[in-house]
Specification:
By secondary structure, this protein is mostly helical. It has helices at residues 2-17, 94-103, 107-118, 123-139, 143-156, 163-176, 180-190, 198-218, 222-239, 245-264, 268-281, 285-302, 309-326, 333-350, and strands at residues 25-28, 33-34, 53-58, 62-67, 74-77, 81-85. It is elongated.
């Protein structure tokens, strides 16, 4: 009996002096879950308590963490990490409230909460809070405010996990502000960041190709369109051996870019062949949205002077599929906006002759 009491007392002492670790979770790009291998992606509320990880710092090059029962700090290269989930029980309390405010569209409130997250004592939370606070300007449509806040973030957090995201978002803000050359340079700068993952470099290559395509289309620059198409094809070939979801989706976007260039070059046959393949086989709703939008564009472009109402109807159905089936997917917003505009403008063209607007 005395021995049992001693064992219980010893166990209680160990629990008392051992600091509790957070139950953070990492997911690699191969889909492996670290911290608690049985956790879901995203984790269920009960998955965090069984994790052996406590993340201490997240940088552009590595994720640093403590492992329960192992002295010192361990590290995983950031290149191999797809997603990080912080234990809600040990994260700054304002994080959940900030996400709720964003979901409700109250971006000033979200910004104030993210600034409080950035002011917390946890090292990993400082740049996270600062980046998400800066992002709220973009979310509420304040392009000038976004550029200013994101530029300040980049100057302050030069080794942040969020630096590539901040640079990409700043480039999008520059695009929205009509600063095309600056936006292209911003995307190019992603590739020069020390320790930046290959996936980020690939993303930057896509966006510079996209900008080149838009400029060539605007200026009716046939050579520029062919150059952009070659860049899309080169990147797509590079991505072909990469099986992670992000790379597959980026490869699809390159294929859409090639088709877009082909349409602008009046190569409708090859464009539609590839678009039909994507419509029938793509898994991503964003890819399907893009393929249907471009198919509608191709049908309209090659029959611009025919006046064939049946072809107009065919194009319209492609645009309506985007609006009704795929346009709400994250990342498909631009396709949905284009499809809605073109579908709306086509209704008057397809209205039976003799119809008049109702009084």
């Amino acid at each position: 009996m005395r021995l049992s009491r001693l064992v219980l007392a010893s166990a209680a002492f160990v629990l008392a002096v051992s600091p509790a670790l957070a139950g953070d979770i990492l997911v690699t790009k191969s889909g492996k879950v670290l911290g608690n291998p049985k956790a879901g992606n995203p984790p269920a509320p009960g998955d965090y308590k069984d994790s052996l990880f406590q993340i201490t710092e997240v940088t552009l090059s590595s994720v640093k963490y403590k492992l329960r029962g192992v002295p010192g700090t361990q590290a995983q290269p950031s290149e191999g990490i797809e997603r990080i989930y912080f234990d809600p029980a040990t994260s700054p309390s304002e994080m959940a409230a900030a996400k709720d405010a964003e979901a409700q569209g109250d971006f000033p409130a979200a910004r104030a909460l993210w600034e409080k997250v950035s002011a917390s004592n946890q090292k990993w939370a400082k740049d996270m809070g600062a980046f998400f606070a800066a992002r709220t300007f973009w979310q509420e449509g304040d392009v000038a405010g976004a550029m200013q806040a994101l530029t300040a973030f980049k100057a302050t957090y030069r080794d942040s996990w969020y630096l590539p995201q901040a640079t990409r978002l700043n480039a999008r803000a520059l695009l929205a502000g009509g600063k095309i050359a600056e936006a292209r340079a911003e995307f190019e700068s992603v590739k020069e960041l020390k320790g930046v993952p290959v996936s980020e470099k690939n993303g930057a290559d896509f966006w510079t190709s996209w900008i080149d395509e838009q400029l060539a289309t605007r200026n009716n620059d046939q050579a520029g369109l062919k150059k952009a198409m070659t860049a899309y094809k080169t990147l797509k070939g590079k991505l072909a051996s990469m099986k992670d979801t992000a790379s597959v989706q980026l490869g699809d976007r390159c294929a859409l870019g090639v088709a877009s260039c082909q349409i602008a070059l009046n190569d409708w046959k090859d464009a539609e062949k590839d678009l039909e393949r994507m419509i029938s086989s793509a898994e991503s709703p964003v890819t399907k949205a893009g393929a249907h939008t471009l198919m509608g564009n191709s049908i309209l472009a090659k029959n611009a002077t025919s006046g064939d109402r049946a072809l107009y109807r065919e194009a319209l159905w492609h645009f309506l599929r985007v609006v009704c089936l795929y346009g709400t997917a994250e990342g498909a917003e631009d396709y949905r906006a284009e499809a809605m505009y073109k579908a709306g403008s086509m209704f008057s063209e397809l209205r039976p002759s003799g119809d008049t607007d109702a009084d």
